[in-house]
Structure formats: structure tokens, C-alpha cells
Amino acid sequence: MIEILTIKCAKCKTKIMKYKKIGKGRILRCWESKIKNLYGEIKEEKLVCNNCDNIIGEIESKGKRNYVKMNREEFTYSGRKIRK
Ligand SMILES: [Zn+2]
Fold first, then answer.
1. Chunked in runs of 10, what are the mean pLDDT values of the chain (84 residues)?
2. What is the 16 CA–ligand 1 centroid distance (Å)?
């Protein structure tokens, strides 16, 4: 199952990103390669809301792949399932 998630800032509801999520489960990491649109800003290795500066996650990497380690309380999301 593939879902397109719209991730928003939990504080001000500004859009942070659109993310292509494969499979079920919680959103702990957002891999750079699956981010479709990024509306938030990267500041000092952190992904922040460009409206209220809320820290949504931290940029980390595994091998050569970058991801955002998401701060669970700082975002909300809604999803749209798509078939492939
Ligand atoms: Zn915000």
C-alpha cells in the first residue's frame, strides 16, 4: 500500500511536506527520496515549520541516505491511499 501523506505542523497547521509512505505503521522517519514536496525549511540540520519555527524533525542519515527523524508530537498528517 502506498499513501500520499500531507504532513502539517501540529502548532499552526502549516503544511510541512507531502510524503510517499509505503506500508503501514507510524511515521518515525521520512526518507529524503520519498519526500514529494517540501514546504518546511531546513535550518541547522533540523526541519522546521516556515511559519512558526516549530521543530518537526531532525536530519539524520544512514549510509548515504538522508532522512528526517520526526518529532512525534510536533506534526499531524492526513493520508490518501493510492494503488500501484
Ligand atoms: Zn508551525
1. 94 98 91 97 97 98 96 94 70
2. 8
